[in-house]
Amino acid sequence: MFDPPLAPANGVRVCVIGGGGTGAALAYDLCLRGFSVTLLEKGELTSGTTGRHHGQLHSGARYAVGDRAIARECMEETLILRRIAPDAVEYNGGVFVALSDDEADYAPVFTAACVESGIPAREVTLAEARAWEPAINPAARRAVWVPDGAFDAFRVPLAFFAAARRLGAVIRPFVEAVGFDLTGGRVRAVFARPCGSTRDERIECDYVVSATGAWAGAVGRLAGLDVPITPAPGTMVAVRGRVSDMVVSRLAPPGDGDIIVPQRGLSIIGTTQRVVDDPDGILPNDDDVAFLLGRADELCPGFSKRPIHAVWAAARPLAGRAAGVGRSISRDFMVLDHAAPGSPPGSSGMATLIGGKATVLRAMAEKAADHVCMALGVDEVCRTRDYVLPPWREYYSEGNYAEGATLGGRR
Amino acid sequence: MSDTVSASAAIPLRLRIRDGDGYAEFRVEAEPHRTVLDLLERLRSGGSAVPAYRHSCHHGSCGTCGAVIDGVEALMCLTRAADLAAPRPRLPGGPAVPPERDEAGAVIVTLEPLSKMTVVSGIAVVPGPVFAGIPKGASYLRPASADGRASLPPDPAEAVADPGAWRPDGRVRFEACIECGLCVSACPVAVPFIGPAALAAVNREREKRPEQVSAMVAIAAAPDGVGPCGRHLACSRVCPQAVFPGKHIQLLRNALASLA
Predict the structure, then answer these.
(1) Cβ–Cβ below 8 Å for A51 and B126
(2) Domain for residue B42, yes or no?
(3) Are A138 and A121 contained in the same domain?
């Protein structure tokens, strides 16, 4: 039963721009802390990057060698998400497999880094790994068990939206932020345009957080801000059937085509990476498909013989600016305060969340909400890890009817 | 899904997208493997005023991008240009007929919002009727068949589970139903009826959780339960996930009969 104690309403109005996973968790977090929240999303909720991610619930093992802090955070967040959104997580664990001599040599380095990051990884025999998942390449050299899983990229965020709305947040999909009132050098209001309308609404607010991921550059420009973000799309291929229940990854530094995530009735091989200027209308590179299927066959032979179900692409929001394909940019996230040089943080009335990834959506929201509290002098702590979220179905079953809407019909 | 698709293989399409009382029309040249959703995304990012549509995962998992495409409910992310140019039914379960073409030879494709749902704008709907009848605590996880595989290892980092949450032991996976509502839209029943998606969920819950049997049977036995279903099977015919709600409704009828 979702019935969290609420902080007293503080009357402070926060406008969250962006209806992805981070915006969802942020709206919920701010409501718990007593803020009055309006969230704007130009399309359907999670129609940007969030919904399209391959669904891996990262234990952090993938990042441990490169960055212990990110890995530790992933591990903490997987445990939290498994606790607060249990019905939207397929938790079956994962296996990293080494296929080459170099990868076999990497195993002890990898396992030690995981353990140092609080991830209870352990090397297992190949026979053991293949007893769990016979699809794993019999020619693999070494295997490491990790607490990876899969989660529903749509339903986890929707559970956060359901929670936020239950606590009074006004969630407005199909309403685009098109401008800001910056009178006096501070955001006073957001101009919002409902889809299909030519009339803008003025949404008065005391603070704005842009949680627009790969679109943060475009939204920042509306306020005259330069937001360093690199949209970095990757292609994914889903084939029919579950090759495994465990997530199967390549025991190597993060690269292309090195993760197979089972989910529902599909197996997904991801991903590739390139960088683009505009994250809108990202389509998969056709060349990526054969490459990804070939890489999947190395992990689990026969993967490519399964019927292809879908091919798609999603734009990661890398914090910073990249040349090349951007793999050198950290997957970490930060809250960028837009105060003018020499002015106190928060004085611009706006911040942007940049970077990050789906597994840490709740942690990103926590950090952003902490920032809002600091900027506005509100003394409330984060409590989003404490309560099991309401069912995602509540978001739609409780109605969200737009004014003037009509019943659809056909024929 | 080949990487050698040549420009000559492009399929000319005339997309007619419901927008209020009329249609917005777009002429596109589509590679055969591009989906309807890909085409809408390309038009929108190119600056065209495309009527609103829902989308999220782009691979048939989220269930948001349903539409009535030339008279039959389908997911836009799984309907390719090649499918549109091939003979297709114009009614759920109807005979396949060749595509309609305009005077220039372009395949005419009409996109309507799902029926029985509130339209936000364009073909974007609020899918309330899909979710309203699904039992509040219905579990979305089910056991994944082990198929002779070894048990998964115990998790040393076990998350502290919510004591109230039901969870199958061992390997788990999500239910096949993606709650897309194509079945609800296609169902011709016009009297109060909780609908095929909800009844499929009711039956799954009945089968998975013995302690829920009596509550689930009561939902099925209510006046808006299985009774109004006229066995049209439109629900099963449009289901993109092979859930076949008509089968679940029949299983509920059988369960009711065995209790009578």
Answers:
(1) no
(2) yes
(3) yes
Do residues A385 and A243 both lie within one domain? Answer: no
Chain B residue closest in CA terms to A267:
B59
Decide which of A319, A338, A360 is a domain's last residue.
A319
* Phi, psi (degrees; rounded to nearest 5) at A354: -125, 150
Query: What is the tens place of the pLDDT at every residue in A293-320?
Result: 999 999 999 999 999 999 999 999 999 8
Q: Which residues of B touch A309 (CB under 8 A)?
A: 59-60, 78
Indicate the pLDDT class of residue A321, thresholds 50, 70 and 90. Answer: confident
In a domain, residue B150? The reply is: no
Q: What pLDDT is recorded for position B156?
A: 84
Answer whether B76 touches A (CB < 8 Å): no
Same domain, B132 and B24: no
Residues A252 and A314 in one domain: yes
Q: Environment class of residue B254 by beta-carbon count within 10 Å: exposed (0-12), middle (13-18) or buried (19+)?
A: exposed
Q: Rounded to a whole number, what is the largest CA-CA distance in chain A?
A: 68
Residue B28, Cβ density class (10 Å: 0-12 exposed, 13-18 middle, ≥19 buried): buried
Residue B173 contacts by C-beta under 8 Å, 6 or more apart in sequence?
A: A90, A242, A245, A262, A263, A264, A265, B141, B142, B143, B144
Count of domains in chain B?
2
CATH number at residue A370: 3.50.50.60
> CB-CB: which of A91, A236, A405 is closest to B172?
A91
- B144 to A45: CB separation less than 8 angstroms, yes or no: no
A43 contacts in chain B (CB < 8 Å): 52, 54-55
Contact state of A396 with B63 under an 8 Å Cβ cutoff: no
Q: Does B213 touch chain A (CB under 8 A)?
A: no
CB B125 within 8 A of CB B113: yes
Contact assignment for A93 to B155 by CB distance below 8 Å: yes
Prediction pTM value: 0.96
* Interface test mutation site (partner A, options B57, B121, B178, B208, max chain A beta carbons within 10 A): B57
B101 backbone dihedrals φ, ψ, rounded to 5°: -125, 150
A3 domain-assigned: no
Average pLDDT of the segment spanning A13-22? 98
- Residue A8: what pLDDT? 94
Report DSSP state, residue A87.
Answer: G
User: Domain span at residue A210?
Assistant: 13-49+154-228+330-397
ipTM: 0.95
Share of chain A above pLDDT 70, in %: 95
Same domain, residue pair B193 and B122 = no
**Amino acid B56: pLDDT:** 98
CB contact under 8 A, A396 and B112: no
Residue B24 lies in a domain: yes
Tell me the residue length of chain B. 260
